[in-house]
């Protein structure tokens, strides 16, 4: 009896430590995203922009941009979906902004869209004649698409990747601060 109680206590301690380390890791990631959201780069946008392109290219995106404007819009990238399942796609709008007080910021907006295909069958159609059968076959191949849903939000995960490439010193400092704040 004493061994099983002791074993249960050890298991509870291990599970508690694992849960706390998972929470701490999540809190460190949130801390890093928050710091990145407010980060002002010392570099000029011309130095930062190749890093923006590198990150987006690593995720498989292609884009359009006006050279020298520091605004980039990617094409929609299909994320999958089956024949009748939802079709999802994502795109990014990235803006580089020079601040009047000095420095620059990079803002990344992500757009996600969901497009649901629907099929129309002939399950409850009564087939009595050859003509009914032909109409049922024709109806079974009809399909449509429900209205597309789109959501846009700031993508701090991509901004963190850009920060790590563009300003590794700041990223390391934020990592150290996050670890100190959430060990």
From TrEMBL:
UniProt-listed PROSITE patterns: PROKAR_LIPOPROTEIN
Protein name: Lipoprotein
């Amino acid at each position: 009896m004493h061994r099983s109680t002791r074993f249960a206590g050890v298991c509870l301690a291990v599970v508690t430590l694992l849960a706390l380390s998972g929470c701490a890791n999540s809190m460190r990631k949130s801390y890093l995203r928050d710091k990145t959201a407010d980060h002002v780069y010392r570099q000029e946008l011309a130095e930062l922009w190749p890093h923006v392109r590198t990150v987006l290219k690593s995720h498989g995106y292609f884009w359009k941009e006006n050279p020298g404007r520091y605004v980039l819009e990617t094409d929609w990238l299909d994320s999958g979906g089956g024949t009748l399942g939802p079709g999802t796609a994502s795109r990014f709008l990235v803006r580089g902004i020079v601040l009047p007080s000095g420095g620059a910021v990079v803002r990344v907006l992500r757009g996600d869209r969901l497009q649901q295909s629907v099929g129309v069958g002939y399950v409850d159609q009564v087939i009595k004649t050859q003509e009914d059968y032909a109409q049922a076959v024709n109806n079974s191949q009809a399909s449509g698409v429900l209205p597309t849903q789109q959501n846009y939000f700031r993508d701090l995960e991509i901004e963190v990747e850009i920060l790590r490439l563009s300003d590794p010193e700041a990223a390391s400092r934020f990592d150290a601060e996050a670890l100190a704040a959430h060990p």
